[in-house]
Amino acid sequence: MEFASVTLFKSNEAGIKAGTMTDSLGIFKFDNLNNGQYYIKCQYVGCEPVISDTIIVSQNKKIDIGTIYMTEGEILSEVVVEGRKPTLLTKLDKKVFNVGQDLMSSAGSASDLMQDIPSVDIDIDGHVSIRGCDDVTILINGKPSASMGDKTRGDALNQLSASSIERIELITNPSAEYKPDGMGGIINIVLKNDVRQGLNGSVVANVGSHGRANTGISFNYGFKKIIINGSYSYRRDRYDRSIEDRRTSPMGNIAQSTYGLGRPVSNTFRLGVDLALSTSDKLNISGSYNKRRFKRNEKVESETVNLSDEISDFYIRNREADAKENMWEGNVRYSHSYCVDNSFGFDYAYSSESEDEINHYATSQMQGKSKSDENVWDANYLNVVNLFWHHRLSEKARLNIGYELEHLRAEQNYHVFDLAGDTFIPNKNKTNDFTHYMLLNSLYTTSELQFGLWNIAGGIRGEFADIRNDLHSDNKDIRQHYFNIYPTFHIAHPIGDMSEAMFSYSLRVNRPTGSDMNPFAETINPLSLEAGNPDLKPEKIHSLEFGWLWRKSNGASLATTLYYRYISNQITQVSRYIDGGILLTTKENMQSSQNAGLELIWNMQLKRWFDFTLNMNGYYNQIDAEKLGFGKKKDTFSWSALLYANFRPFKHYMLQINARYRSATLVPQGKRNADIRINLGMKYDIPSINLAIIASVTDLFDTYRKSYTLDTPQLKQKVDKRRNPRIVYIGLSWQFGGIKKHSENKLEYDEGL
User: Fold this and answer.
1) CB count, 10 Å around CB of 22?
2) Residues 6+ apart with CB under 8 A from 570
3) Residue 59 three-state SS
4) pTM (whole model) above 0.70
5) Residue 688, phi then psi, degrees to nearest 5
6) pLDDT at residue 96 above 70?
7) How many Cβ atoms from other residues are within 10 Å of residue 125's Cβ?
8) Would the pLDDT of 467 be above 50?
9) Which of 212, 341, 461, 477: disulfide with 176, CB 3.0–4.6 Å?
10) What gap in Å lies between CA 451 and CA 440, rounded to an integer?
């Protein structure tokens, strides 16, 4: 029986000790229990509650209490039971967002889905942030992916279908088992992997405004010790972009308008096999392939008015681009368990993403017309090997040890050809080849201890980084080597029966990516260039959090987190004029920055027909950009709010509203302006045929934009970026298959941590 409520009590003591729900096989377990006598209470809609006999826990043993039988209560001629996982599960060390109840999970992408998650934001350019910090590590099934690099993650998240995601985990202060990368923390995207026996699956199909469409099928087949799962999804999208850029330069005032339209089409295949080699040995093999074709057109109009208030330059630049992208991922994991809650094994993950893009440019200027072609090759190849050992030293102590090897190769090649007569001739001044290599060797250990009601976890991770940048066009080889120790510490203590307090500290790092360190300039338009900086240093981040969590048995919760971060060598984006009024944007290290904030997440179900999650985050930010020439101390207070609400006014129907606001934030040369957006979704279930009808509207009032203002003695600029106007989807979702009904369901009780 799935979704039965199981509550744990201790004999002769008041209050609930723990609670959980049965999984798809009717199995549940409780971990990390003290010695003593317990009993459980099982409840399910339409059934009589059942209280177990006394269960004696001692000597760190796994206890199987056998089968619990539940009988139907007084019912009508027909009863329909609807089970729902909570959308947001709040814990002190992480937040878990269950995708199933979010209406974006049917028609939207992973990018759309992240806009509904507390603490997380994603902007028009695909930059993901946590609590206002856009230095974030994104994992897929707990592993790094080449597609989630800083430059490619925006497109990758737009391609990843939300319907393929089981849940999203947010870890703001991770332990030493995780890589220390990411100032804001870690977002772990967990893909669906059904473990039920028999054939199960789902089919979704959606059509959207302006020619958008997507469809997909996922399946799972479980037979004894083998589970096979797979999926296919097709997605046809449309990207409308507009940019208004107004700036001053030594040559006068420049006004630029950019209009772009893109139509990406992607196909994604996934296949995985879970094998139970024995009761102690498990093997998992999985892989995926994504193929995308992305055609787009872009038009830039630019006008320069000189200091005498005369038009000194005017041009129109048209771009036609055709990109072919391929993404591969493969994973092999083996684990062996022994004794009680002990295991060891290995994990190997390979991922790659490549983009082969051809750009055709036609430019009309006051001086005449010109044409050029630009061939761009951008690829990342990532290999990660992890060896792990988890061992319980005693009932209240646990030790984890691991080794991780990570190797990344990032290639960025730009080849430009200018039309001379009837022939395109290579432009050697704009052509370049760049390769970035990174090799990380890491050894980590963590321990978990329990002293009475205190739960303490500590860890340390040692990393040696070997980084090499090959500037092939200049015959240069730039290297960096460094070794660092990254400690972590977590401590938690319950306060009464319904609340808990926690403190944590971690030292983290933000390493420059390959594109951050590529010094060769990419021409965005004739008056705008972008380039990296091979001399960038990694950021170091000291992160502290103090949290308090209040939780009631009815699912209501209030999480409060006070946090502080100090960052040295912070990497920031800087824009400066070079010859001829051309604006060059690059990356540089400033001295430091620090921010402190308070975040609240309130989750409540007021009535059976209404529940909501309210997230509010306010923080103070101070930066020191003196060595960049932008002032020693700049500070501001920023805040953001998210309301996520579900209404169920009548049977089988749900209305969902998502509203998000973010105030202005600080950048070294100015500020990013405030933005607001509201999404709306509707769903109607037809349980008799396992069908759901879903509709959604993204950016209901067409208010979403990204704008920023730079104000320095040398540069005054205002940029306003707009995304797709209001997007509408309507679609169907159908579930098929199901586990065969058994005469009884075994319920297992596990005392181990």
Assistant:
1) 20
2) 539, 589, 590, 591, 592, 593, 623
3) coil
4) yes
5) -60, -25
6) yes
7) 11
8) yes
9) 461
10) 35
SS3 at position 75:
coil
SS3 string, 103-138, reads CHHHHCEHHHHHCCCCCEEECCCCCEEECCECCEEE
Q: Which residues pair with 436 in a beta bridge?
A: 410, 469
- 505-to-173, 174, 597, 640 alpha-carbon distances in Å: 7, 9, 15, 24
Query: Would you give the DSSP letter of residue 474?
Result: G
Q: Which of 112, 88, 11, 109 is nearest to 551 (CA)?
A: 88
**Rounded average pLDDT over 681-690:** 90
Estimate to the nearest angstrom the gap between the alpha carbon of 312 and the chain centroid. 46
Helix (H, G, I), strand (E, B) or coil at 688: helix
Question: Would you state the structure tokens that stand for residue 143, as one six-digit string?
Answer: 């592993």
What CA–CA distances, in Å, run from 491 to 175, 504, 748? 12, 6, 29
Say if residues 519 and 531 touch (Cβ distance below 8 Å).
yes
Residue 239 has pLDDT above 80, yes or no: yes
12 pLDDT higher than 70: no
**Distances 79 to 225, 538, 672, 683, 687 between C-alpha atoms, Å:** 34, 60, 54, 21, 12
- Residue 270: CA count within 13 A, CB half-sphere: 21
Residues 6 or more apart whose CB falls under 8 angstroms from that of 573 comprise: 585, 586, 587, 667
**Bridge partner residues of 588 (DSSP):** 572
- Which pLDDT belongs to residue 742? 35
Classify the phi-psi angles of 591: left when phi > 0, otherwise alpha if psi is within -120 to 50, otherwise beta: alpha
